[in-house]
Amino acid sequence: MKRRLITTGRIVRTGFANFFRNASLALAAMAVMVVTLTIVLFSVVANAALTHTVAQFTGKIDISIYLNNSVTDAQRTGLMDTLKALPQVRAVGYVSKDEALAQYKEANKANKNVLEALNETGGNPLPASIEVTPTDPAAIDQIQQVLGRPEVTALEDAQAGTSYSGDHKKAVDNIARAARILKQVGVVAVIVFGIVSMLIIFNTIQMAIFNRRDEITIMRLLGASTWFIRGPFVVESIVYGVISAFISVGALYLLFMLSSAALQASSFGLLDIGYASSYFYDHFLLLLTLQLTVGIVIGAASSSIATRRYLKFKIR
Amino acid sequence: MILLDRVTKTYNKNLGTALDRVSLHVEGGEFVIVVGQSGAGKTTLMRLLTREERPSSGKIIIGGIDYDKLKDRDIPLLRRKIGVVFQDFKLLPNKTVFENVAFALEIVGIGRREIQHTVPKVLDIVNLVGKEKRMPLELSGGERQRVAIARAIARQPKILIADEPTGNLDPKHAWDVINVLEKVNKYGTTVVLTTHNQEIVNKLKRRVITMQHGKVASDRANAQYEL
Fold first, then answer.
1. Does B151 touch chain A (CB under 8 A)?
2. How far is the C-alpha of A72 from the C-alpha of A69, rounded, in Å?
3. Which of A201, B14, B83, B182 could connect to B160 by a Cys-Cys bridge, CB 3.0–4.6 Å?
4. Residue B227 falls inside a structural domain
5. B102 touches chain A (CB under 8 A)
6. Is residue B205 part of a domain?
7. Residue A314: which of B52, B76, B106 has the nearest Cβ?
8. Which residues in chain B are closer than 8 Å to A221, comparing Cβ atoms?
9. Domain made up of A62-164: CATH architecture
10. What is the total count of domains within chain B?
11. How much is the pTM?
12. What's the CATH number where B113 sits?
């Protein structure tokens, strides 16, 4: 136990010493690692911001079912219960005739002609309506099927019928598609750069090993365990990963600070920078942990593979 | 201590056998000299003992460890029990004499205090007191080889294998090294020495195993060099 502790201490110390000894090689490995990790970080934050944007637009989509005046309270609540029971429905609301009139007057209070016309007709020409909010834009089609049933259409106002916020739907569809494509591009970029940085770290470690292969041979002949030889290399590349993670998180931190202060831009295309930066600050520790994990995994995996063939026992 | 039973090693069928049914028995505390011309199988024999090679057939048991049952990951444990000295020293050029010896102890997880205590004692045995801070390149060949011996015996192995340790040395330095080996043997370590040096063999008057064409040609106590 004590020996294991001493050995672990020596492995870590040697790893750090090698890190400084290989400074120039380490720099190249870390540069690629920083790019990789920044891409990972950027895709995570962009993904969150896009999801947020889509959700915002989705919340604005709704379906209004205009009811004819003969619908009883029981029929109305019956229909509302049916709709509430659908998995595609997030919320169901009711706007009575009086509320509809009040809303209408409020919306047109600047337009005296409209108000006068309303007063002239007397009574309330506006129908009551049930407002349905779907869970997501794609759910509208399924809700539509339910609304097409004869027992539902019987309750509808003959003139107004049902209105779908059609324009909204198209816009949201477009945004959702763009978000999906960006996500896919993000995943591909993360994978490609992940592999590239693994290869480069792999090479860096192999060069470091090549420089010290005599030492490794001697260590083997003296009975050094596999981990005593491999450990320092793994520690060294984990150090690459940790430093790179801090650099990439720091870089994005700076970027958000600059963009909110200097650019004063609230969005970049579909990307809501305001939301992205608040997401970044709110999840700072989580994102830092993610970056550290990815960096450490890339470093440890590539150096473990790189050292493998130098650790065979048949060497001299 | 060392037992070989009909050990055969073939590297490549076209080249014939490097070792051909070699059987040996070395008792604990013995000093054995293996002689033979180049290609006679001396080095192959040494590499089998340190488990750098596997025998093609036959049985090897050293210090109670049966090589057939030895897993790859336990090879380090075996090598810690055997001290090895090479013709080309195999010292780490960027470490001092002290660090080179300490290195063998660090590998095994021995604490710093024990290392500080052990290394000077071992350097005393090989007559290198006062040269602790020298780098290997600042030393003569004989001194370097004695550093290598110090490193090999620092962990107090039961067996010390010295493969042509005097091969690169002039006669005076060669004797310095041989004297140290005799001293180590006196402390109870089994020593297996391979050499070409006729004078050393004849003066030591120890058990001599003569190898020829991969076979044991003769195996005699208090013997002379006879090739």
1. yes
2. 8
3. B83
4. no
5. no
6. yes
7. B52
8. 50, 52, 79, 84, 90
9. 2-Layer Sandwich (3.30)
10. 1
11. 0.68
12. 3.40.50.300
